[in-house]
Amino acid sequence: MAVSRKKKKRKHKNKQYPYTKEELTEYLIKKRDELGKVPAKKDIPEQMRPYYRVYFGKWCYALEETGVVIPSAKTLERRARKKERYDELHKKLRARAKEKKRIKALNRESK
Predict the structure, then answer these.
(1) Does the pLDDT at position 29 exceed 50?
(2) DSSP string, 63-108
């Protein structure tokens, strides 16, 4: 007897959401001006919160992309180092896969 697996629900890009990215951006900027500080998640109505995740991912990315918060130099450096480590590791894995003729296992091209 085969074991059935639950399928993950995927978010479709062409799905209609009640808020657009522009509306969420405008609301976040308006809220910042209204509060006089960087808005926290709790300052945003509950029905809007999931759509910030859909469009922006993490809350900090929503704040950065809308211009409410500018990431520090330290944060940008940390992200650059992380990307460099990832790229270096990916190159090593591709070289090892090529060496063992398993290149199909790593079909993702390095950026």
Answers:
(1) yes
(2) HHHHTSS---HHHHHHHHHHHHHHHHHHHHHHHHHHHTT-GGGG-P
